From TrEMBL:
Source organism: Roseimaritima ulvae
Enzyme class: hydrolase
Name of the protein in question: Arylsulfatase
Cofactor: Ca(2+)
Transcription regulation found in the keyword field: no
């Protein structure tokens, strides 16, 4: 009997230890915040109530802005959905992760030609895979270019990504919002029942075309003197806002809002493809208004970025610059996960890091002719924002193996704007401020070279 005591004590210790480990894991899961990542699709940075638009009403996003660390001066890495989303997911610039446009060069069968590009892209660490590796359930809905939700590392989702079934850029996932929210709310129910922290990728095809808003909203925005397509776009912006209200309201209903980080950003800007009643200088050009989507101007690359986390993030309107590449390191730090050390972004919840940032950068590539393995081949513009200044630099490199050499830039035209005085970039100040042009041009050259592993 005495010889059984040590064995009994050992078994009890093992049992107690396993229970302690399970309790510790359960406690850890309970403490880690959920994450809801909201992405609008094709919405200009001005087109929200909280950003001061005189007509468009976005009451739910306005409420979120009041509860958030709000960056009115947020930027995306590229003015087009696919490279922009890829940069959010990886925390890298398009020329680093390789997705620079929407289509591979010569894409007759676009989905099939995407396969080698996606294979290379998914080798990079991602925000989603990092969260899942740290115990998160993750759901994909809406816009998603890089294969299926499984390919992206999600644990559940809507997009199948099968080329044989027309799978591309979201397929079945694009119904979210337009046809209800049940796939997302069902996932939230499951995660809550399993007592696991969750990540929701909510990227509805809104306010993107087709502009087919509910008639009640279209009637609201239709008025004499306003172009029909503008009225439809305005109505779509409010429709998107309503779906955000449904999602955020469900967090309240489930009593989990206080333990949920909500992130908001738009993939790229947009302006109605016609003469705009509020901007008579906006002219139609190849399907998009000039200086909007697919351009390096503010209407292409600027977006409000907001982060809400009750009890952890103080609501305030920050004057600091924010960037889409910051979201991966920010969320990793918030949940105690390890992001790659070499990511170029910062933790937006770190006030000191924000204050030390002097500039943000980005690119603009051709829209429809990516060259797999050569992300510099279709580069058109690089841009830099420094304080109130913004510089656009046209890239004229022909020998793409020497993209970082200074001769590539010698005859590249530039445009300089003061965004404080001229937020819609109407007056080029290049001739008036050659010192600013020289300083920011050199900053762009240095950033681009270093980002590509060159010290030249």
């Amino acid at each position: 009997m005495n010889r059984m005591k040590p064995l009994l004590f050992a078994l009890l210790a093992i049992f107690a230890g396993s229970n302690w480990a399970a309790a510790a894991e359960e406690s850890s899961n309970a403490e880690r915040p959920n994450i809801v990542f909201i992405l609008s699709d094709d919405q200009a940075w001005t087109d929200y109530g909280f950003m001061g638009h005189p007509e468009i009403q976005t009451p739910h996003l306005d409420d979120l802005a009041r509860q958030s660390l709000l960056f009115e001066r947020g930027y995306v890495a590229a003015p087009l959905c696919r490279p922009s989303l890829a940069s959010m997911v990886t925390g890298l610039y398009p020329f680093q992760h390789g997705v620079t446009g929407n289509d591979v060069n010569g894409s007759q069968d676009r989905a099939a030609l995407d396969v080698p590009l996606r294979a290379a892209f998914h080798k990079h660490p991602s925000m989603i895979k990092t969260l899942v590796a740290n115990g998160y359930l993750a759901h994909q809905s809406g816009k998603w270019w890089e294969g299926s939700w499984k390919d992206g590392g999600f644990t559940a989702g809507m997009t199948h990504g099968d080329p044989k079934r027309g799978g591309r850029h979201g397929d079945a996932g694009l119904s979210i919002g337009r046809k209800g929210m049940q796939p997302v709310t069902d996932f939230i129910d499951q995660a809550v029942a399993q007592e696991q922290p969750f990540f929701v990728w909510y990227a509805p095809f809104l306010p993107h075309t087709p502009h087919n808003p509910p008639q009640r909203l279209l009637d609201k925005y239709t008025q004499p003197g306003r172009a029909a397509d503008v009225a439809r776009y305005y109505a779509m912006c409010e429709w998107f806002d309503e779906t955000c209200g449904q999602l955020l309201g469900y967090l309240d209903e489930k009593k989990i809002a206080d333990n949920t980080i909500v992130v908001y950003i738009c993939d790229n800007g947009w302006a109605a493809p016609s003469t705009n009643a509020h901007d008579p200088n906006q002219k139609l050009w190849k399907g998009y208004a000039q200086r909007s989507k697919s351009s390096p101007y503010e209407n292409g690359i600027r977006t409000p970025i907001m982060i809400s986390w009750p009890g952890h993030v103080k609501p305030q309107n920050s004057p600091d610059l924010a960037h889409s590449i910051d979201l991966f390191p920010t969320l990793a730090a918030a949940v105690g996960a390890d992001a790659p050390d070499d990511l170029p972004g910062i933790n937006l919840l770190d006030a000191e890091a924000r204050s030390e940032r002097k500039r943000v950068f980005g690119v603009c590539h051709s829209t429809h002719n990516m060259t797999v393995g050569n992300p510099h081949d279709t580069l058109q513009y690089l841009w830099c924002v420094e304080g109130d200044w913004k510089l656009l630099l046209r890239y004229h490199g022909k020998d793409t193996t020497k993209y970082h050499n200074l001769h590539v830039w010698d005859k590249a035209p530039v445009r300089l704007y003061n965004l404080s005085d001229d937020p819609h970039e109407q007056q080029d100040l290049t001739a008036m401020h050659p010192d600013v042009v020289a300083r920011m041009t050199e900053a762009i050259k240095t950033w681009y070279a270093q980002s590509n592993g060159s010290s030249d």
